[in-house]
Design brief:
- It is a single chain.
- This protein is mainly α and about 60 residues long.
- The protein has one domain (about 5-60).
- Helix content is about 60%, strand content about 0%.
- The protein has helices at about 5-15, 15-25, 40-50, 55-60.
- Helix 1 runs parallel beside helix 3.
- It is globular, with a radius of gyration of 12 Å.
């Protein structure tokens, strides 16, 4: 596995649950953090779930 860039990991770890949900829903195709060939997808997912992931309230507030 490729070693993650610590600056990217810090960015992920500094995001709120809401910010992560918004990015998860609206990130452009091919976004670095959702590329399964890189470690960021796992780091992002783990952190997001620790914060509570999507809630109905966040989902409704974000809309489409």
């Amino acid at each position: 596995m490729i070693e993650p860039d610590e600056k990217e990991v810090e960015k992920i770890n500094s995001m709120s649950q809401y910010e992560m949900a918004r990015l998860w829903r609206f990130a452009p195709s091919g976004h670095l953090w959702f590329d399964n060939s890189k470690p960021y997808a796992i780091i992002f997912s783990k952190r997001f779930m620790e914060l509570g992931g999507f809630t109905p309230e966040i989902s409704k507030d974000l809309g489409w």
